[in-house]
Amino acid sequence: MQDIILIAPFSHEAAQLLEDQGLTLEDLAYDPLLERSRSLARERLIDAIEGRRRLILDRVNPMNEVYSYLAARLIAARVGRSMLSRLATYESKRFGELSKRLSLDQIREIASNTFKFTIREDNGMWLDLISYLRGCVNIGGSKWRLVNRVLINGYILVTEHELRRLLEDHVKRKIIETPRVDLPEPLENIAKEISNLFSKRMRIRMKFKKPKEGRIDLPPCIKDLIAKLRKGENLTHQARFALTSFLLNIGWSKEQILDLFRSSPDFNEKIALYQISHIERRGYKVPSCETMKSWGLCPGDCGRKYPLEGNE
Amino acid sequence: MSILERIFYSYYRAMAKMIYVSNVPRREFMFRGFDGRVRRHTSFPRLEDLRKYLISDPPLHAYYSVSLYQDPTAPMKKKGPIKAELFFDIDSTDLQDEECEKDSTWKCKECGYTGKGAKPDKCPKCGSERIEVNHWLNEKCISLAKSEVGKLIGMLSSDFGVDLDQVSISYTGNRGFHVRVTGGPLTSLGKTERREVAFYIMGKGFDPSLYLAIDGGKVTVSTRSRIMKRAVNFLLSEPAIFEGMSGKIRSVISGKPVRLSSKEINRMIDMLKMAALRSGAEIDWMVTMDTGRLTRIPNSLHGKTGFRALSLTLDDYKVFNPFEDAVGLPAEPYIHIEVTMNVPFFKLKGEKFGPYSLGEKVRLPGFAATFLVLRGRAKLLSG
After folding, report:
1. Does A228 touch chain B (CB under 8 A)?
2. Which residue of A136, A142, A152 is in closest CB contact with B196?
3. Which of A166, B157, B206, B219 could disulfide-link B276, Cβ–Cβ 3.0 to 4.6 Å?
4. Are residues A162 and A213 in the same domain?
5. Structural domain contains residue A155
6. Nearest CA in chain B to A290
């Protein structure tokens, strides 16, 4: 139980403890005993911005993990959608890492108690279709597509590793759905500090100039990906590949593309630059509309057969 | 009021009690009038008001939303969706079958070149892709569409675990069927999740390599995936395709592991991909992923045939014959028409008609004359 609360502060078990303690927003903001939680919340947010991952847990007072997680969510929501998305990616990936310390039984407990997964055992582990679909749509790769799964009577055959990965995505969704509320002063102050830091981090992105977009007829799939990036949403590996190869083909420089990716919640300049350079060096072609459809990146038929059509 | 409008009006006056839509106040309605006017974002507080509307302003086409909304009259983004039925559109036009299309005609919009049968991708004369088609419908179109409905229902039941009491089938009044899952967890899915469902049903994006195993150098195909199982069964049941494959690939498909070169493996993968598509159901995936779609009001008339859109049971649809069961208009009054495009032989309500040639003037029972005029193959001479 303690492990679940420490590693999964979003869990039903943690929420139950919060409810039992009757914690209010004012307590979270003013209670001197929760000072450590507030500073931990700040650390969580800074780590999310800087791309660090704190894996040390407060075992002396496990509730600090829960309080700080909750405060970080509320502050991120107050700062804005991009910051919330960044925190969601950070927390879900952190959970992915930390949850390796949890047993399969504990993972199943979180899955069913917190996210209402229905899991059955019958010559393998079977997950209900709806929980699978809600998670899989944000994960790239053909093995995750429903068409490539064993689906019988509304249940999908999954491995332990896949169950853990799907949970990560549900964690992310849960955080992204955090409502935006007015915060008491001490939390509002942290929100201001985080907002400044976040803007600073994004400063290079603000300098980014759109190259001749007026003369370029971008297909809706590419527009969609750019809009998602600008909102700070995370893109799948295939989506990043499609976007990069498209932009390189219409004449964007590596630096311009790199700047676009800066708003990605898991942005790492070194890795991103390597990937962009690799695509450029190899001269990869832009995926066809058929491929974009199979990757789930086509928002609807725009009449093109190839995303570059009209821009060649 | 034209004679066609008068016929539609008489139909709705007599049949208003047969019009039924569930959850009327939460649905959006759309109508297309005889003047081409489209009325969207309409709602009715009660079923009775919808019936009255159909009599007072008989439409050429009448639709309602598969979604339930907080405010059905608001613009799309502000409607406040409550739930959306999972919707599948099966249209024989997408099946591109020669027999079904044999009496369809097409015309190039660029150079005016015309032809008969399935529409070519490009105009054979000028190469333009702008081609308009006047589809015909015959028994083959309907039987093909029914077979797709059967495949879809089978998958919904055995793969998706959908309770068949929550599946509704309806004939569109033209060349296809609409199938809807009206309740259960699938109605809570979002757009991208619905696309996953649609691709599964179609077998689109299937990657057979995920189900190939190499053991001791020998290749085996795992049929644990229902899609793979259907693809394998399809290949085994199509002698023309099966016999065309190499002996080694045939062995693996038949469940006997053998060694294959990487070229042969790739060839087998291509065959399995094709088989997955052929054994999947041909649905319009863009319709399925769009929760804002509309379907025809049951027992309303289709403006391209004059046939009734009908709700069918799981048993009904198999024996259903639209040329008998969906003809909703009476024979009286007989109507004079002039044929504007060649008309093949056809049967309606057991009566035989045609073939008619361009320029021919005939007097036909109301339902047959309406059918030809609405299909764009004849024009009214009186009324």
Report:
1. no
2. A136
3. B206
4. no
5. yes
6. B205
